[in-house]
């Protein structure tokens, strides 16, 4: 999200997603399940799955151009950009992919970046072009061909598998495929296994790889209860939807086995199964009126007890009846592992809350910047240089007038003018950061209120009074922690001195 071309890629992706229509693509496993369970083939056919090797990083640029040209009649309906400029922007985004590792910049010379929002739709265009080109040249009848991103499910004559695989691999040297054959009339695809019946019809069953741990969100995990229930219910729904070859009792046993493995109570599992069965037999309701209020979703961290109270407050309030609160957990799997990406230098980071200490006293200044921290430090340095020049003005009246103006710039300059001190601009520290710039002012206010600093109190005047008690508590705890650290340091010094004296004796 911090890449320079991210927003441009997102803009192009939105246009192409509305325009590209690939008859071979499926949106999810439920759609494929419905399709394949209503299909039949004649004898002599085999099921295989083709998988593109590293699709995103091998998308050829020339095939992207060709695909956009072939589908331009659809694309131009969703944009007022002309073809030449549109192609130029797409090529620019692809060729501008780079990353930084250990202070060195590397440019991606082939394909598209994995995190680029444009990559999936470009892969969709390229694989669609590939399929059309290969099928037009093959003299082989392929009754079924469906794909999900880079996974292809194909039903072809059993003696033509190698021919078809060779044709796909010959299309472009960058796009190479591996193949998986059916075994005993069964072939895994997505999160199901496709079963070919004796009458050449198809059935499906929910599938979990043999190496899978079977772990889902544990019932005793620190997450909102409704989230855990939704996870369990969606699993019940998935097993029942995808398992067309099993009896109701077999489906129930599958659900029971995995949910009990994740500590879900048997009574809850039974209720979820009954709820799904009731909804499956219920008559669909009519769509709601369009004149209803649009729901607004806001996310907050999940804190046991507090988050539920906030959610209930919004539900009971008539003033915020269109706002839905969703929770997220700060403790993610990513926080357990060391980041493999190169660490960005402190002064090269943006969207941060920073702190600068005075070189002559304990004063600290807290600030916010959406630019690189280095750029903000240049601004502070410029103010200090101007202050040095002003102090050398011989005319007392002019000097005092300009010093008065400098004091109004920032609280840091006010401190510098009043005391003659200077701040350590070479050792600024980052207190907080956020990719969402609208959060930064709130974060700045929180840090101003919970740290010992010289900032003007006017910075926190816009904060709602409901936060006063919370900030007071945080400030008190922060002060207590600092005091405990100071006491610990003092005790350590006294212990070291006593040990040294004992050694001298």
From TrEMBL:
Membrane-spanning intervals of the chain: none
PANTHER family: REVERSE TRANSCRIPTASE, REVERSE TRANSCRIPTASE DOMAIN-CONTAINING PROTEIN
Domain of life, per lineage: Eukaryota
PROSITE patterns reported for this sequence: RT_POL (PS50878)
Protein name per the record: Reverse transcriptase domain-containing protein
Region of interest (Disordered), residue spans: 481-505
InterPro entries linked to this entry: HTH_animal, RT_dom
Domain Reverse transcriptase: 1-211
Lineage, opening ranks: Eukaryota, Metazoa, Ecdysozoa, Arthropoda, Hexapoda
């Amino acid at each position: 999200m911090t890449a320079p071309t991210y927003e441009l890629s997102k803009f192009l992706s939105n246009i192409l997603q509305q325009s590209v229509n690939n008859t071979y693509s499926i949106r999810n496993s439920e759609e494929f399940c419905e399709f394949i369970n209503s299909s039949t083939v004649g004898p002599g056919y085999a099921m295989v799955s083709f998988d593109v090797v590293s699709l995103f990083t091998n998308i050829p640029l020339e095939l992207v151009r060709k695909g956009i040209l072939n589908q331009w009649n659809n694309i131009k309906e969703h944009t007022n950009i002309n073809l030449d400029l549109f192609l130029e922007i797409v090529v620019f985004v692809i060729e501008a992919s780079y990353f930084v590792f250990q202070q060195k910049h590397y440019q991606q010379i082939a394909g598209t970046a994995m995190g680029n929002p444009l990559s999936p739709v470009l892969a969709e265009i390229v694989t669609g072009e590939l399929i059309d080109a290969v099928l037009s040249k093959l003299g082989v009848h392929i009754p079924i061909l469906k794909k999900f991103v880079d996974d292809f499910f194909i039903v072809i004559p059993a003696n033509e598998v190698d021919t078809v695989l060779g044709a796909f691999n010959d299309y472009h040297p960058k796009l190479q495929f591996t193949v998986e054959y059916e075994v005993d009339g069964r072939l895994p695809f997505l999160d199901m296994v496709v079963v070919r019946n004796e009458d050449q019809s198809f059935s499906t069953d929910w599938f979990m790889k043999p190496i899978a741990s079977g772990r889902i969100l544990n019932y005793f995990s620190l997450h909102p209860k409704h989230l855990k229930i939704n996870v369990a219910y969606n699993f019940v729904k998935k097993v029942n939807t995808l398992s067309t070859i099993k009896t109701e009792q077999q489906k129930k046993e599958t659900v029971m086995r995995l949910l009990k493995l994740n500590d879900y109570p048997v009574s809850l599992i039974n209720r979820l199964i009954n709820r799904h069965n009731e909804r499956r037999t219920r008559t669909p309701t009519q769509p709601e009126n369009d004149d209803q209020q649009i729901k607004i979703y806001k996310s907050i961290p999940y804190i046991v007890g507090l988050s539920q109270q906030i959610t209930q407050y919004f539900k009971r309030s008539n003033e915020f009846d269109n706002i839905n609160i969703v929770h997220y957990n700060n403790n993610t799997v990513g926080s357990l592992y060391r980041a493999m990406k190169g660490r960005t230098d402190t002064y090269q980071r943006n969207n941060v809350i920073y702190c600068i200490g005075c070189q002559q006293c304990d004063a600290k200044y807290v600030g916010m910047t959406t630019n690189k921290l280095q750029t903000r430090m240049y601004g502070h340095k410029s103010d200090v240089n101007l202050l040095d020049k002003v102090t050398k003005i011989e005319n007392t009246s002019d000097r005092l007038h300009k010093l008065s103006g400098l004091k109004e710039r920032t609280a840091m300059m006010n401190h510098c003018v009043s005391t003659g001190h200077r701040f350590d601009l070479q050792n600024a520290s980052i207190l907080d950061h956020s990719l969402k710039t609208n959060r930064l002012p709130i974060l700045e206010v929180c840090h101003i209120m919970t740290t010992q600093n010289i900032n003007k109190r006017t910075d926190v005047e816009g904060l709602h009074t409901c936060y006063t008690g919370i900030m007071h508590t945080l400030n008190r705890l922060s002060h207590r922690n600092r005091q405990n650290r100071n006491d610990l340091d003092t005790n350590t010094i006294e212990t070291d001195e006593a040990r040294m004296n004992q050694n001298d004796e």
